[in-house]
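Handout for the seminar on molecular recognition.
Each group receives one record of this type.
Step one: identify the two inputs.
Step two: read the structure output and locate the region that could contact iron/sulfur cluster.
Step three: write two sentences on what you found, then compare them with the reference statements printed after the record.
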Amino acid sequence: MALSAPATVRTHCPYCALQCGMTLGPAASGYAAAGDPTFGVNAGDLCMKGFSSAEMLGHPDRLLQPMIRRNGVLEPASWDEALDAAAGGFARIARERGHDAIATFGSGALTNEKAYALGKFARLAFGTANFDYNGRFCMSSAAAAANRAFGLDRGMPFPLAWMGEADVLLLAGGNPLDTMPPLERYLTKQRAHGQSIVVDPRRTAFAASASLHLQAAPGTDTILAYALLHVLIAERLIDTAYIAARTTGFLDVRRNAELEYPERAEKRTGVPADDIRAAARMLAKAKRAIVLTGRGVEQHSNGTDSASAYINLALALGLPGRDGSGYGTLTGQGNGQGGREHGQKSDQLPGYSTLDDPRAVERVARVWNVAPERLTRRGMTAAEILEAIGTQIHGLFVMGSNPVVSAPRSAQLRTKLATIEHLVVCDFFPSETVAYAHVVLPSLQWAEECGTMTNLEGRVLLRERMAEPPEGPRGDLAILAALAERLGVPALIAPDAEAVFDELRAATAGSRADYSGVTYARLRGGDVLHWPVPAVDHPGTPVLFAESFPTADGRARFVAVASHLDSEYCTAEYPWTLTTGRNREHYLSGTQTRRTARLNAAVREPVAEVHPALAERFGIVDGGYMRITSRRGSVDVRARLSDAIRPETIFAPFHWGGTSTVNDVVGGSLDPISKMPPFKACAVRIESVPAPAPPIA
Ligand SMILES: Nc1nc2c(c(=O)[nH]1)N[C@H]1C(S)=C(S)[C@@H](COP(=O)(O)OP(=O)(O)OC[C@H]3O[C@@H](n4cnc5c(=O)[nH]c(N)nc54)[C@H](O)[C@@H]3O)O[C@H]1N2
Ligand SMILES: Nc1nc2c(c(=O)[nH]1)N[C@H]1C(S)=C(S)[C@@H](COP(=O)(O)OP(=O)(O)OC[C@H]3O[C@@H](n4cnc5c(=O)[nH]c(N)nc54)[C@H](O)[C@@H]3O)O[C@H]1N2
Ligand code: SF4
Ligand SMILES: [Mo]
């Protein structure tokens, strides 16, 4: 492999939404990545995932050839054979069972161009109403809450730099020192002059360094947020002028908050009433205060309401739109932001337009040259699509996700995938989901192709093609174009990323997430562009909501969410709560980081964190194995005893498959609005078990 540029070139990390600037240069064995000191977001820092990302480019496990399952075995095939088989299978199912029997499952790892093209493909080549993406498991609750409060969802409606300048920072359900380590420089800066409050059932490294750690039980965020609001109201610390001028709906929220006095909340959240009072006062005193949520708040069957509860708090303090202050959520996947804007899910159109906005529907229909009626069918969401395999869904096209590891109820999903009529997976590694495919289409990796990503601040970034791809794989856009052609829609997908982007610009012109003023030329020229960018001479919009909110009346909306616990949270048979999340060393379903020698050597298997008092009751010892059982099933994992976790809570990372699939245990009812599965709270029982034989090596 050779670099197209002579020496070191600038790009962005392929993993999370921080999209750290990195340089990629030649190394003894392929490429080496290093932090790009000229990129302001990370100023040269990278986490261990970013540092090791170049190892993936020339990795020996790369999928290099298409494959077709014959007599139960995946065998190499030519591209023509594989594309014919892939398209042929979908066409047959559509003919026999109707177009809605086929579905696409996309990803927040895809570039804006791919996310846009995949949505267009699902609507016009598959003709299905059923298409969604893995962001449903990631950002959907925060997105739903922000949309209903502000009329717009851009994870951080203000620049990251504000984090370092805030007098008070409240972070609920986020573990940034493990999940976005380069944020440390903002947090250190903030700590030097301000105060911080962390809400987390675990004493994470950030919680340990915070001014106040509110160690609430999982799933109790709505109660805690109401209790904080109760104190603000009781002590007359709310911003009444802001509430009157810039919001609606406060009275109902106020009524709910008045019931949630701190001593009552203490019983249900486990957070001492005095700490709740102290936190509320701290927030109220701050000139610049920021409230942030992470997946800990959002991945619940009431995740939308939980995020709304913190937004209510931020509104009562008058933060959104105030200089240096605001509410935001830490978007997760590399293109978690752009991935939720451009129509790869059936409930929205490119530019974050809604289906019930006739002007948006007409605009996209015009750009696509189709009748508007073809664009407005709302179908099933991610978990519902997977659940419907074998009943309503018989063909599935996966691009950029590994649901066998990352989706809830994995054991059930594996059973369904074992008998699905037609599964086509595009990936660059043989993931656990690829193992079930009928057709495998090998893709290019980030550095081998060009495309844009939108980071957690809504800033559009261009990743150039800079590495020579190996023989064999093709770009996702080319794959979509070839499949569309075989499905009878030639020229559906424009020939290269920039042409697709130009179409996306037209499709989003005038919309909430307006990209029409972003061009490859501007990005190449160094323009720093946060959407909306409604014209090619527009400077972009790093700060939103300063004057008004993009709602019908220009005001933000309080939402009087219910403050209750899900019944899953506490039962006699399943008395403990399992919450799941991340290790610093591994990324999501692990298909990439588990292939990295150093990261895999550092952490080889899921290790559950258990409080010593709970472990003792069940004879579970440090380094020994424990079985975690829920209504869905069980998983055996190694235990690590730690007093940093609440005594009734167990934490386990979900980065592994096979017998270490934590998502065999996870499941339960979906959030009624966002359709988010409850990854962060699931009722379990635990027991000590012998080490598995043969041991996981
Ligand atoms: N190393 C690494 N980094 C990553 C990723 C990765 O897989 N690995 N993934 C990326 C992606 S896609 C995402 S979405 C982000 C996620 O980033 P984060 O949201 O920071 O990560 P999580 O580990 O899912 O959860 C964060 C915290 O929520 C806490 N928590 C659990 N239940 C609750 C609860 O009910 N309430 C509250 N308040 N807190 C709770 C957990 O103890 C945990 O410390 O990380 C991104 N960065
Ligand atoms: N229990 C539990 N489960 C969870 C979570 C949790 O906290 N707890 N978190 C959830 C969250 S926040 C997320 S984001 C999901 C994510 O979970 P997944 O959707 O499984 O995400 P990845 O592991 O990144 O899988 C991406 C796959 O696509 C491939 N890939 C990456 N980029 C591309 C590309 O550009 N093109 C193609 N064709 N393939 C590509 C990778 O090799 C990999 O196999 O997991 C969710 N699952
Ligand atoms: S923090 Fe995220 S973007 Fe930055 S190096 Fe790590 S994985 Fe990559
Ligand atoms: Mo995520």
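Reference statements: The pocket of iron/sulfur cluster (ligand 3) is lined by residues 13, 15-16, 18-20, 42, 46-47, 49-50, 180-182 (CB under 6 Å). The chain has four domains: 9-56, 67-137+343-510, 140-330, 576-689.
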